[in-house]
Amino acid sequence: MTCSHCWHDANTDSGGRTMFVNNLYFDSTVQKIVTYSTPFMTIFFDKSGTMTGKGANSWFLPYYKHLLQPECERVEAKGGIVCDNTVQARRVAIHGMPSNFFGMRLKIMPMEEAAEQVMKNGDTWQAFKDAETNYGIVPYK
User: Fold this and answer.
1) Rounded distance between C-alpha atoms, residue 138 and residue 141, angstroms
2) What is the pTM of this model?
3) What does the alpha-carbon distance between residue 21 and residue 59 come to, in Å, rounded to a whole number?
4) Cis bond leading into 70, ω under 30°?
5) What is the structure's pLDDT at 138?
């Protein structure tokens, strides 16, 4: 499991730390590689590819819709998203927010520049922005 006591109100860590793993072995009895716990943000960098099955220097991420890029796939049996070594995953931290933002939802929309330009023409862009299913939702802590 990820993160110890991150659920506690007195915790000052918002998660999203990168854990480096190498040469892991999972026997046939392993049913799930990672179980995410609050705040559901640990990033795993798999140096050997034995955790992800995507080769050396690949990534294992928590499931958030905005992280599903063409180089990544959701693998529910493993507990998250796996990405090949052509991407880089990084922690994004926002500091200095008023305390009344605690627990609010941060909506993140993935988009490519070309798709953005096409969708900006008329109602299609507005409909895309209004659809909740186009966002990854991350609670602010």
Assistant:
1) 9
2) 0.78
3) 10
4) no
5) 79
